[in-house]
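Hey all, quick one. A colleague (J.T.) asked me to put the glutathione job into the tracker so the inputs and the structure tokens live in one place instead of scattered across chat threads. No bug as far as I know, just bookkeeping. Sequence used:
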Amino acid sequence: MQDEYTPPKVWTWDRESGGDWASINRPIAGATHDKDLPVGKHPLQLYSLATPNGQKVTIMLEELLALGFDGAEYDAWLIKIGDGEQFGSGFVEINPNSKIPAMLDTTTGLRVFESASILMYLAEKFDSAFLPTELKARTECLNWSFWLQGSAPYFGGGFGHFYAYAPTKQEYPINRFAMEAKRQLDVLDRHLAEHEYLAGDDYTIADMLTWPWYGRTVRGESYDAGEFLSVHEYEHVIRWEKQIAARPAVQRGIMVNRTSGPLEGQLHERHDASDFETKTQDKLEPAEK
Ligand SMILES: N[C@@H](CCC(=O)N[C@@H](CS)C(=O)NCC(=O)O)C(=O)O
């Protein structure tokens, strides 16, 4: 056991914890500075970044547009969480939890935060698209949606944090969360061995919530831990991952608010459907030089 720690009687915030992201971690909520959010021309205003939680929403919006729901047109504004933009007063007004993604529906004046809440809101707004209405399928869809929201923090905040971001590699937490990460992948693998999609025969919001997290994991892209977690073992998750990755709306959705990776895959902000052709970073950066 390394670095034995005896907690004091009362925890105090007297130093940064170290590690990646330490500068944005605080034990208090609320805004750190005044900053209004920009508002564009479309009914839906999204404030986000293309992390797995952000991609859930842009995939859903692109899927709705692909189905012909023009009311799902959106402006996607970039929120740089590494720079603390989630603590601006305008952002905190629409998400008091200061985390992306957050959305404003200008047609209802409602704020929507928490990715699963956003996907349910959108599904219900657009004729229950991707949210089955039949009781059994709807229940399974919600079962897996809530499963994802409860499970991913152990994967990201638990495994990812200790494996990739913590200032030192410690065996106990890495073991604890690698075990949980593999257990979750096995839960998915067993289910997908017998079902085409998470809720059954149809592609639903449960898949859109889950794919950005565990799809990238079985591609070996989460925390560079593909080999460590032996992700090749989860063959049914791999089959499902590929099926969803082939969808054009998914391919567009994952580009929005993306600030890393190949330049042609980065659309920092999306204000028009044509932006995918004209405003990716490979087209903008030469002009900016
Ligand atoms: N349960 C939330 C999680 C959102 C979340 O953790 N967002 C992260 C990025 S993936 C964030 O904004 N972090 C900034 C911070 O913690 O200050 C959801 O599903 O929307």
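Adding what we noticed when we looked at it: The radius of gyration is 20 Å. Residues 135-252 form a domain with the Glutathione S-transferase Yfyf (Class Pi); Chain A, domain 2 fold (CATH 1.20.1050.10).
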